[in-house]
Amino acid sequence: MSRTHSEPPPSEITPRHLFERRRDFLRLAGGMAAAGLLPAALAAEKLDTRPSPHSIAETPTRYKDITGYGNYLEFSSSKSGHVEASQAMRTRPWAVVVDGLVARPTTFAIEDILRLAPLEERIYRHRCVEGWSMVVPWAGFPLATLLRQVEPLGSAKFVEFVSHADPAIMPNVRRQLLDWPYLEGLRLDEALHPLTLLAVGLYGEVLPNPNGAPVRLVVPWKYGFKSGKSIVRIRLVERQPETVWMKAVPDEYGFYANVNPQVDHQRWSQKRERRIGEFFKRETLMFNGYADQVAGLYSGMDLRKHF
Amino acid sequence: MSFAQLSSRQIAAAKVLLFLVCPLPLALLAWEATHDLLGANPIEAVTRALGDWTLNFLLITLTVTPLRRLTGWNWLLRLRRMLGLFTFFYACLHVTSYLWFDQFFDWQEIAADILKRPFITAGFVAFVLLVPLAATSNNFMVRRLGGRRWQALHRSVYLIAVLGVLHYAWMVKRDIALPLIYAAVVVVLLGVRALWREQERRRQLAGAYLPKRKRVIPISARS
Fold first, then answer.
1. N or C end of chain A: which has fewer CB within 10 A?
2. Is the pLDDT score of A40 beyond 50?
3. What pLDDT is attached to residue A33?
4. Can you give the residue range of the structural domain that contains A39?
């Protein structure tokens, strides 16, 4: 299967009238749920997505592994403790403030975000800095779509992503394990890259809480910790943000955090990875296999220095 | 029933019981592994669990002496060797699981890991130091080395405990709550020994009467 185009062929774009009907469905489902006619889970689950040429031709990791294993440090320090703990998080109502160096600072309700653009299914590799990886069928649209709405000013050079932090339901926020809220950042050109996704779902369903509901970032060529979960604020800024991990352990976590088998983390060799569901380890790919699309962003940079 | 004194038959029974109990964590792990209960990353879960149990057995072994002294149950000492050997048993499985499932016997990568990553260095040194202790655990080696030399060698277990906890703490990404609990236990277990040793030294300096059965701890440097 050839999936190297950067633009979807016209045949893959959902006709507008079909796309519009999705809204009718959502409205209907929402109304029925509100009336108690439909189990809330069923009403909320399904998303209407179309395939994307940016998807990779690899078998997605099992749903139960994607939703049952990972790092959501606000809720738990274990790889599965967040699954139960994150159920306490309420994702409606939800708003995302997009401000900073923009012409039109806007607060988006989650419902607006879901309507902002047709949802694509993007099957991406996901590589954690700890040496494990998955293949995740995300649902979302390019972050660039959202950023264009607010019209970034010429002075904006970086984008900051702030995650939800609620000490009432997040034990590690109460303990001040990190300097919360979780803050990550990208260079503006990275944020506008067509691969950078604002995800609202996975496996064609609304994003489950353990994976960063209701809206999260996905930057597939970087280690997972760069992709903030449960985003509440996106701010365009002039200077490179100091991310939460850079503040906590500056010699272990850099700003770029591009997947790079040649540059080891202090605790983990990054040459190989364990794909969840597989026994043998795989060789880790440069930029997590997205070198063709993103290597140009870093030409001339010493990636050992800018780790 | 009093636990102060056990007959040799009772001690033998205690040993059999202990021998049956100590492999239970491994049995549980095997059961979980064969029933898909270890989550999305079962290999990591196995390696972690084996490491946890190595540390647990190490600390249980180090509890024998203080517990014996506090309770007066001298027979506890007769169980210490088996606990120490089970520590070594779990350590071997832990190391094997790392060498095999993590590195697939890529010796170059393993060497790089040991040299470059402090948590692997600490764990590796702790394991290497365990080997002579396991090798000299039998009666023949105790006799051959002589009590004092044997004891001096086996004091390296204190260093092994410290290295084991460092291995754990340095591995953890951010939340060191659990390693800190292990560290606190080690501090208590080594602390009481230091405290008792100091008390004994003072008693000796004061020329106090020492019960015959208690070993005199020399205050001069050992040759």
1. N
2. no
3. 45
4. 10-46
CATH classification at residue A221: 3.90.420.10
Are A261 and A116 in a shared domain? Answer: yes
Tell me if the pTM is above 0.80: yes
* pLDDT bracket for residue B210 (50, 70, 90): low
Give a yes or no: residue A303 inside a domain.
Answer: no
Taken in order A48, A50, A54, A56, the sign of the CA dihedral is positive
Residues A193 and A97 in one domain: yes
User: Is some CB atom of chain B closer than 8 A to the CB atom of A251?
Assistant: no
Question: Which pLDDT belongs to residue A220?
Answer: 98
Number of domains in chain A: 2
Average of pLDDT values for B4-13? 91
Query: A236 and A99 in one domain?
Result: yes
Q: Looking at the predicted structure, is the pLDDT value of residue B162 above 50?
A: yes
- Residue A89 shares a structural domain with residue A14: no
Structure tokens at B182: 């292990």
Q: Which chain B residues are closer than 8 Å to A249 by Cβ?
A: 174
Q: What is the ipTM of this complex?
A: 0.83
Average pLDDT along chain B: 92
Contact residues, chain B to chain A, C-beta under 8 Å:
39-41, 43-44, 101, 104, 109, 112-113, 116-117, 119, 170-171, 173-175, 177
Using pLDDT thresholds of 50, 70 and 90, give the confidence band for residue A10: very low
Average pLDDT across chain A, whole number: 89
* Residues 134-193 in A contacting B (C-alpha not used; CB under 8 Å): 172, 177-178
What's the gap in Å between the CA of B103 and the closest CA on chain A?
A: 9
Q: What are phi and psi of A46, to 5 degrees?
A: -75, 140
Instruction: HSE, CB side, 13 Å, CA atoms: give it for residue B26.
Output: 16
Residue A196 lies in a domain: yes
Instruction: Please tell me the distance from the alpha carbon of residue B167 to that of residue B182, in angstroms, as a whole number.
Output: 11
Are the CB atoms for A38 and A181 separated by under 8 Å?
no
Instruction: Kindly state whether residue A152 falls inside one of the protein's structural domains.
Output: yes
Question: φ, ψ for residue A135 (rounded to 5)?
Answer: -120, 120
